[in-house]
Amino acid sequence: MWTELAHQVGMAPFMFRPLVLLLALGVVSGILGVIVNLRGLEFNAEASVHAIFPGVVAGAVFGGIDMIVPAASAVAVVVAIVLTLISRARIGEAGVAIVLTGFFSLGVIISLHKGDRSGQLEALMFGRLLELTDQRLTMALGVFAIALVLLLLTWSSQVFAAFDRDGAQAAGVNLWVVDLSINAAIAAVVVASAAAIGVLLVIGFMVVPGAAARLVVHRVRHMVPLAIGISVISGLIGLTLVPLGPVSPQAVVALSVVAMYFVFLLLRLLRDRRRTEVV
Questions:
Q1: pTM of the predicted model over 0.85
Q2: Residue 42 burial (C-beta neighbours within 10 Å; 0-12, 13-18, 19+)
Q3: What is the pLDDT of residue 115?
Q4: What is the C-alpha to C-alpha distance for residues 74 and 89, in angstroms, rounded to an integer?
Q5: How far is the CA of 252 from the CAs of 41, 187, 201, 241, 249, in angstroms?
Q6: What contacts 115, CB < 8 A, 6 or more positions away?
């Protein structure tokens, strides 16, 4: 399907498939990144990235690379529930750190189960963007859709809880559902991006766009489109730079989103300086 569509638009399939994935990642991670930033869930996102790793490894080692998404999805469900229970129990960052360390260590053990798999371990951690197949792209888009639906269904409650968690609870908002939904959405983005971007580099897309948008705008309705734009443009810039040299495509894409943050940081500093001079 995607190969035929690539030929129809005049692009090589090995470039078209990453383009489609990065556009989907840009939209979903832009929306997700705003909530992650508003609710201060950056560490939860980091923990999810590492905690889902054993599912990624198990899928690749025991079922092949096409089984990464199904196996990682199963682990992602467990991770989302565990992180939600930790937040509800008010254990704090210590509990999140335990989940991160425990699950990630398990992933490394599984990876080395059948001998030295250091090369495969690197591929699982940092992805293979240009080796994306039609099947893996289709599965990734399905998981992205799940994340998007979770965000849209709970959006107003997510924003309410971000600004006034106690008020949201007093107003009857089910914070268990809200917390589980955001943790599940984070996990879904990690799963969908694992084979292409890698479980470690995807953290940039979940954290940076929302943080960059918040540097220059303060209203949520302005942050969302700006964060989506930052994420999408970063992916496009990174993919455009890939043919220029023998570099890691996924690393270039991840570095592009980080570079966008510093662009907006500079814009923020220039704006603040201009206001100071006017005063």
A1: yes
A2: middle
A3: 55
A4: 23
A5: 25, 23, 10, 7, 5
A6: none
CA–centroid distance for 157 within its chain: 21
Task: Give, in order, the Cα–Cα distances in Å from 103 to each of 53, 82, 204, 273.
Answer: 7, 11, 20, 45
CA distance to 13, 183, 190, per residue, from 47 (Å):
33, 10, 11
Judge: domain 2-278, CATH 3.40.190.10: no
Selection from 216, 215, 189, 224 nearest residue 203 by Cα: 189
Task: Name the DSSP letter for residue 219.
Answer: S
CA distance 109 to 97: 18
Rg (Cα) of the chain, in Å, rounded? Answer: 19
Give the integer Cα–Cα distance in Å for 70 and 149.
Answer: 19
Q: Which residue has the tokens 């591929």?
A: 123
Closest CA to 158 of 76, 36, 29, 49: 36
Domain borders along the chain are 2-278
The length of the chain in residues reads 279
What separation in angstroms does the CA of 178 have from each of 78, 88, 89, 92, 241? 16, 11, 15, 17, 38
DSSP 131: G
Cβ proximity of 188 and 147 under 8 Å: yes
Q: Is 260 exposed, middle or buried (0-12, 13-18, 19+ CB in 10 A)?
A: buried
The structure tokens listed for 156 are 């107003």
pLDDT mean by block of 10 residues, the chain; 279 residues: 75 87 95 95 90 87 82 92 85 83 87 61 75 89 96 96 92 94 95 83 91 93 95 91 79 91 94 80
- Reading the block at residue 37, the tokens are 């930033």
